[in-house]
Automatic annotation (TrEMBL):
Annotated GO biological process: ubiquinone biosynthetic process
An example Gene Ontology molecular-function term: FAD binding
Identification of the protein by name: 2-octaprenyl-6-methoxyphenyl hydroxylase
InterPro entries: FAD-bd, FAD/NAD-bd_sf, Ubi_Hdrlase_CS, UbiH/COQ6, UbiH/COQ6_monooxygenase
Amino acid sequence: MPMGNPQVQKTVDIAIAGAGLVGALTALMLAQRFPHWRIALIDPAQGLPKQDPRTLALALRSQMALSDLQVWHQITSATPIEHIHISDSTGPGSATLHANKEGVESLGYVVQAADVQQALAQACEAQANIDWLRGESIQQVQAHTEATTVTLTSGAHLTARLLLVTDGSHSPTRSLLGVNMQSKCYGQTAIAGFIETDTAHQNTAYERFTDEGPLALLPFGPRRYALIWCAKADTVQQLMALPEDEFRHRAQALFGSRAGYFTGSERVGSFPLSLAVAERFVGHRFAIMGNACHTLHPVAGQGYNLGVRDALALKQVLELYQDPGDLAALQHYEALRRKDYQHVQTFTDSLVNVFSTAEPCVSFARRCGLKSLRMLPSLATPLAQKAMGFGAQETLWR
């Protein structure tokens, strides 16, 4: 609830700017682990959570985190990914990843973002040590030796031992703290939407690489896929202008028949693709997390999953410190996250650079790589680990 009275001054242990998917998850995770801490969730929105139209590819590690928080059973839209088929449109060459070969029931799940947000919101509201401050945003930040004080929209003041910034890619709180982003434009735009087929998907996700960028189909419903189609900006502009049946035929021609015949499609929107990472992740009694800290190309499906790992790492680190805003704790957190960010950034950049060109030598090399994955299954395990959200941090979480 809003704090209302401009004269109100409130003290908490942790204040979180932004109540979206990462902010609400972090609030719930820390509130459950540290019930003696008071946590304020600062949310500019009024009323119920907005109906986020996106679909999310949840890595297995992220699903495990939601399960540990006792909210997974509420997310009824989840479709498991048991197989991932990777192929190249420029010539023969494909590979597959299978959950059963990795000893798990699924490699991940496809879910409706709104369902995850609603489940997290309900759990946060039921958590006694979370104060959800709706209709509030941070207007000013003032640092003190032992705490940080923020001035809210209502004029009220909130003092916290630690400020967490989770208010999205265009974070106003990050700007108030004077933290800049280092960015790189990929020269690609993504179309988000849905494809319906005449064939059941068998819980298979498809990643089809083209000379302009990847085209992904993620199982979401019995004969339905969530679509992410990445291409050059002018190509996307042409695709978005096509009638629906022509758009579907273009997708079918590029994708082939491996997922069946495309019987329906829906375009939700398009967005430019870039890499952006905060110049620093922590400072005096603050940490930046989620999309406020990192924005990635969707090729590796790491976006929200990286934010979940932010929350997991922070919880793990804070278990070692009595003061959540201790400089040593924040530096410990930054060291853990920097390694993961660098690993994911290198992996994502490599995929974009190698799999988004028609240059003959590169095209031949990547098809050979896909064939090697098919012929030597042991080579697929590291890739499967990344898909499940473990990768570089596997030993940390298991």
